[in-house]
Amino acid sequence: GSVLLRLNALHNFNMVVLFLLFTLFFTVLFSFMTVIINEAVRSAKTRVWSFDKDLIVSRVVRLSFFIFVVNLLTNTVLVSQNVAFSPWVLFVLLFLHLILFFVPPAISLDDFSFSKSVEVSVKLFFSHWWWVLAWLLFSVFLLVVGEGVLFFILSPSIGKFIIPLFNVFFVLPLLIILQSLIYLRVMYRLAP
């Protein structure tokens, strides 16, 4: 009943508030998924499973804050009238996102603070940039091939529902696992 009550009040919000609410919701959901997947990867590598609810919640909160702030800053830069279609701004934003590639696993695997995880990510990126580039190329390949195959197999009316589900339930977790394995490989020299 309370869900319906809350949904009936949605028409009172303007688009900016709705956008921020949905962005925050999906950021927390993505962060929770990232932390849980990273915990599973760590337990598979170390053969030790530790489920500390408070630790997981603190990691989810820190990771959500990081992702929300980065997305908010990126969207603010892209929406500003002066640089809306500048290819240099897009290149700089892509480069900054790539530099911050190792922040989510640093927060969720090693429980680093925000500043320490950014510092570690910058160091690891500049010393192992080819891993980040390989991950980026693999993710583009996986998205293009996965969507292309599903597009030709399924009819367009079904494909528009199945392809996003395929991306959320297969591609995204696979890329998070790969990101965690790369982090463990370059941070601790663990074999894949």
Q: How far do the termini sit from each other?
A: 48 Å
Computed structural class: mainly alpha
Quaternary organisation: single chain
Query: SSE order in H/E notation?
Result: HHHHHHHH
* Low-pLDDT windows of residues: 1-7
Number of strands: 0
What is the compact description of this entry?
The chain is mainly alpha-helical and 192 residues long.
Description:
The protein is mainly α and 192 residues long. The protein has 8 helices and no strands. Helix 2 crosses helix 8. The longest helix is centred in the last third of the chain and has 33 residues. The relative contact order is 0.10. The N terminus is likely disordered.
Compile the SSE list and pairings:
Elements lengths: L1 H7 L6 H32 L6 H27 L7 H13 L3 H8 L3 H14 L1 H25 L2 H33 L4
Helix pairs in contact: 2-3, 2-5, 2-8, 3-4, 3-5, 5-6, 6-7, 7-8
